[in-house]
Each structure stands twice: as structure tokens, then as C-alpha cells.
From TrEMBL:
Record bears the keyword Transferase: yes
Keyword Transferase: yes
Protein's organism: Actinoplanes italicus
Single GO molecular function: acyltransferase activity, transferring groups other than amino-acyl groups
Domain N-acetyltransferase: 6-171
Protein name listed in UniProt: RimJ/RimL family protein N-acetyltransferase
Keywords assigned by UniProt, alphabetized: Transferase
Amino acid sequence: MATERLILRRFRASDAPVLAAYRSEEDVARYQSWDAPFPLDRAETAVRRFAAGSPSEPGWFQYAIELTAEATLIGDVAVRLHDNLRQAEIGFTLATAYQRRGYATEAVSAVLDRLFRVQGLHRVMGECDVRNTRSAALLERLGFTREGLLRQQTFIKGEWTDDLLYGLLAAEWPGA
């Protein structure tokens, strides 16, 4: 899948060092389930798992975000397709050096377009730590509706955190 500036593709073995590098950034890992640093051997295992997934079968699939101009991996978009093939959860991660340039919005928008227009999904949800205001803003920019707040929902990195829940229906997606 391609956008004006990005290619969203399957992960390759050669992506492991870059994945390890951006997942090792403290600001990137802050609200994620992994800790920094993210070792290369763990990245190699993750990339093998990502590469084996299918975007049209239930479970998680991770799209690699490649910046076309530099032919380099800059992040990823994760999609967990539900068993009914009509609903999914979405998440995203971008290397610090490539944040605040619209790349995440462009990448997530392309994946949502595929989910609604090609795969015919009815609903996509997103969830983020309440303190992750930039992720919440991205979801809202893309038309997601804030549907709830789960108080002390997740115990992560030694503390209980509140999570925001977002939802987007196919009828709300342009051109779906």
C-alpha cells in the first residue's frame, strides 16, 4: 500500500535493527507495552512474527511504515482483526525523528482506508493511555469518537494507568 510519501508493507528481516532502535527510544516506549532498550534479538523475533502474519485473517498484523524518499523504516501500524472479520483494533508507533510531520496520520489513514473500503470492516477501535495526548489527538483528527475512559485499566511499568477508548464506524469514514 502506498501513499504520497509512504509505503506500508510487510516487515522484512532487515528491518530488525531499525525496529530495535526506535522501540529503544524512551519517548517511543513510554506508553507502550515494551521497555527501552528493546534488544536486537527481541526485534528479530518480533519481525519474524510480524512477517508471518496476514492482514486479512483474525489476529495481529503489523504494517511497516517506510518513508519513500529515504527508503527507510520509520514506524509501524498494528491492526488486530477480530474473529468476525468486521471489527478491528488499531495502534501505531513512529520513531521520534519522524514525529510531528504528518507521517502517522498519513499511515493510519491509509490503513483505515484499506480496512473500511477493501476489507469491508464495520468498526475500528483505538485505545491509548490518557496521558498520551498526541495519540489521542491523532485518533480524533482521523474522525474517531472518544467513547470512554477506563480508570486504572492497565498496570504497566509499575503503575496503574487510565485508558481512553475511541471508535470509528465505516459510515463515518469518507468514501467507505
